[in-house]
Write a structure and sequence with these properties.
Structural class: alpha/beta
Shape: globular
CATH superfamily of the largest domain: Response regulator
CATH architecture of the largest domain: 3-Layer(aba) Sandwich
Largest sheet: 7 strands, mixed
Helix content: 40-55%
Number of domains: 2
Distance between the termini: 90 Å
Number of strands: 14
């Protein structure tokens, strides 16, 4: 007669286990972000945060991912690498997140890499510097095309234009410093001689001193400004105040409408290598990226009127969508499985281009991720073929 209570106990255990499994399955997916919503990189962090808020709201309203809602935990690092590291530690130790996205720029992204690797947590960076993923780190991925790719594209165009003597003016930290280093390394391959190499701080209120130095050097045929956030806007205004007449190239760090608002018509005639998002409607009708960037642009601008979409907002879309698709393929948020599935991202068409990651490539973008764009009448104009 003792079998009846044993059966009851067994059934109770099964029910309790089932309830426990249901509770675990219903737990939120915890995604941590650290962004430069304020500070010198706010031109990057603010649109990224707006994108995350918009997409998480949309995904949760549609039932979440695998029946689980996304809980977004966001910290503003104020564009300070030290704060970025502090917040990432908090996301890992206190908030117990499943995945981390962030680092609006290269300095804040680079500051957290060792923490990420020690914690063994999947991380997708929004920074442009190639050093974030080269060398490849097991748990670190990124979505923007690299500073090295941008430098290579600009140098190729200078060569096509027959401009062989150039000056560089770069920020002395992060994306600007890394971009400058890659430009210097790649220049000989294109037959380009760097005849002036000056730097500025992203917090400088005026950059006329190094620009005056560059203007006084004989033989300079072009100027390449490498930086991100608010700094390049100061440089651009100073360039026009000094009446530079040589071609001026900017880095992808300025690819936002807010940059154009800050500088007015001072950027007219300047060129840059940047992603497709800022010229979405100008892409050819048969370009597979066109519907992606056009739809995202419409969604972002409808929600954030009167703000225009920017390349930086697109980085937010790419990173979260790559993460969501990886969570689906992994069947949940087991960190090792999720890491593996991010690495297996194939044929993902994002705002930055077609992404095909691998064990040896945690970016997955090709050289065609960048388009050549010119500023005309205070607006962006696609001009890929102008100097080919």
């Amino acid at each position: 007669m003792i079998w009846k209570p044993l059966v009851g106990i067994a059934l109770a255990l099964v029910v309790n286990l089932a309830d426990s499994t249901t509770v675990r399955a219903a737990e939120d997916i915890r995604i941590g972000t650290f962004l430069s919503v304020t500070g010198v990189m706010s031109l990057m962090g603010d649109p990224e945060k707006r994108t995350f808020d918009m997409l998480v709201e949309k995904i949760n309203a549609e039932g979440g991912v695998l029946g689980r809602k996304i809980q977004l935990i966001t910290y503003d690092d104020g564009s300070e690498p030290e704060k970025a590291a502090t917040f990432v530690k908090r996301l890992i130790d206190n908030d117990k997140v499943d995945l981390i996205i962030g680092g609006s720029g290269t300095p804040t992204s680079m500051a957290v890499l060792n923490l990420i690797e020690r914690a063994e947590i999947p991380y997708i960076s929004l920074g442009g510097g190639v050093g974030i993923v080269d060398p490849v780190r097991k748990w670190v991925f990124k979505v923007p095309p690299t500073d090295r790719m941008a430098a290579d594209r600009v140098l190729a165009e200078l060569k096509a234009r027959g401009l062989t003597k150039m000056a560089i003016l770069s920020e002395n930290v992060g994306f600007g410093k890394s971009g400058r280093d890659h430009t210097v390394a790649l220049a000989p391959k294109h037959g380009i001689e760097i005849v002036a190499d000056e730097v500025y701080s992203p917090k400088d209120p005026d950059v006329t001193a190094p620009l005056t130095k560059i203007r006084g050097i004989n033989g300079v045929q072009a100027l390449f400004v490498f930086g991100s956030g608010n700094g390049p806007a100061v440089v651009t205004k100073n360039i026009r105040q000094l009446n530079f007449t040589i071609p001026v190239y900017q880095s992808p760090g300025v690819a936002s409408r807010e940059f154009l608002r800050l500088v007015g018509n001072a950027a007219d005639g300047m060129r840059l290598a940047a992603g497709a998002l800022i010229v979405a409607e100008q892409l050819p009708a048969d370009d597979p990226q066109r519907p992606v960037v056009v739809n995202f642009k419409r969604m972002f601008e409808e929600r954030n009127k009167p703000m225009d979409v920017s390349t930086l907002a697109g980085h937010g879309w790419d990173s979260l969508m790559i993460a969501v698709e990886a969570i689906k393929r992994a069947g949940g948020t087991d960190k090792a499985r999720l890491r593996d599935e991010i690495e297996r991202t194939r044929n993902f068409i994002g705002t930055a281009g077609m992404v095909n990651m691998s064990a040896t490539d945690h970016l997955g973008l090709g050289a065609d991720a960048y388009h050549m764009i010119e500023v005309k009448n205070g607006d962006w104009e696609l001009s890929d073929t102008k100097f080919r």
